[in-house]
Amino acid sequence: MVFIVATMFHNGIIIYGPALAFQAVTGFPLWAAIITTGLVCTLYTTVGGLEGVIWTDVFQGFIMLAGMLAFLIKGSADVGGFSNAWKAAERGGRIDFVHFETDPRIRNTFWSIVIGGIIRWTGMYGVSQSQVQRYLSCRSERQAKLSVYLNVVGLFLLFTMAVLSGVIMYAYYETCDPLTSQCVQRSDQIYPFMMLDLFKDVPGASGLILSAVYAGSLSSLSSGVNAMATVTMQDVIKPIFKDRFTKRGYSWISKGLVAVFGLVCIGMTFVLATTSELLQAAFSLMGMLMGSLTGFFILAIQFPFSNCIGAVSGLAAGLVSTIWFYLGSKSIQKSNDFIRRLPLRIDGCSNQCQISQLDFATANSTMNLNSTLFLVGDTTQSAFRTTAPYEMSSNTTAAMPMGNYDDDTPFYSLSYHYISAIGLGVTIAVGIVVSLLTCGWDNRRNVDPRLLRPPFDHWLIRCCLPEKVRWVLRFGIEWEDNVKTSTHARDGTVSEGKWAGNESEVIQNAGFRPIARATEVEEE
Hints:
By secondary structure, this protein is mainly α. 58% of the residues lie in helices and 2% in strands. The chain is built from 16 helices and 4 strands. It has helices spanning 2-26, 30-78, 82-91, 110-127, 129-136, 141-172, 190-198, 205-241, 247-272, 278-302, 308-330, 336-339, 419-437, 459-462, 467-473, 518-523; strands at 390-392, 399-401, 499-500, 503-504. It has a two-stranded antiparallel ribbon. Strand 3 (499-500) and strand 4 form a beta hairpin. Residues 354-401 and 482-524 have low confidence and may be disordered.
């Protein structure tokens, strides 16, 4: 259930991004673009299943790379080369890699991004069904690991291109920020706004960039919808109805679930369309749920004494704590000392901003596209639309809001990157305590050792820790690396880490007996 809710929120944000770009390029109403985007993805996911999802992901990956390359090449040419773009970003203070402050209230530092990022990505790639279903579709464990390594290379390339695109966007609008000058109403609209301006004289180029935006979003959306249907089928439908339906009947039920979850995600998009920053909203929502879910799985693979009561209690406590933190952080106002929003310039803007067939509507509008948007008034207007008084910096035209700040508020003033760490820590701590209070320690030897994967026995750490220390960290429970049989193995035989079809033999419910410590066997 936690995974399904997290994926619904995530997919809602995913649909909104390309729909916004589609509106900008075609003049299509935003509400219609959202519905169309969701229906198209739901349709091919329902018909094609996991195989269709994987193959479309492959083609969408190439389209995404082509679109981003086109944007980088044309944008670099228009700003006089990438070296000029880099210099412009340096002048604006955007090239700054050294932020090792330990104050957890600062939004973006090395520590907040690394800690929050590790937990988020571990949840997405380690416990999310959206990724696990891809691993299980591989022919062997070796191929699954290779796919992850290749994915890391691809992600590094895409993230690098995205960052470079941001550098070019800043250089392109160095003296006339579209958000500050009110050419757009949201920061998420700057990319399609620049796309139209950049390729206005190149036929078909805007469509290529739009395809790249869609490719990146639809690949995640389709896998998420398919994963939710799979989880519901395996964990809810089949346990309840068991053999009541034929294989064909279950196939139709699965397709129906895909359609239902696709429609739910479309509805979720309209709910999330009011968020001010998509990236922060996505990170917060995923961290809020994935942190607790990751802690839930860590309890299972690392702590053999954890039981059902403790795990469920820890998961519930983790979710409550992250939701509490998220709502509380939205109720306070933080100063720019911790948000560190950099100043923007509009001294190079003209008095009128006009792009034909484009209407960037506000989040509270009716999302209609009927007219051309104009900038009216003085070009020194601030990007911060608030009734609070302003203080003007001496070297910029961007205004910073003044007011009463809550920087010293405990807990709520933490960076949103730490929301996943809060969920992880609370889930594990509560899970351990409740498990110990409910006789979990006495039953720790009754756990199938194939389900345990202590990180301390990984080859990167094994060389630095003596066996006696690692035995203590395993709580006296032995486990078999890669499920290889040994003289201390459980009764029965298992595979040596190889998978059969789409199901791992590691999780088969074969008979076993608790493995005794090696020294105990020798004494016998």
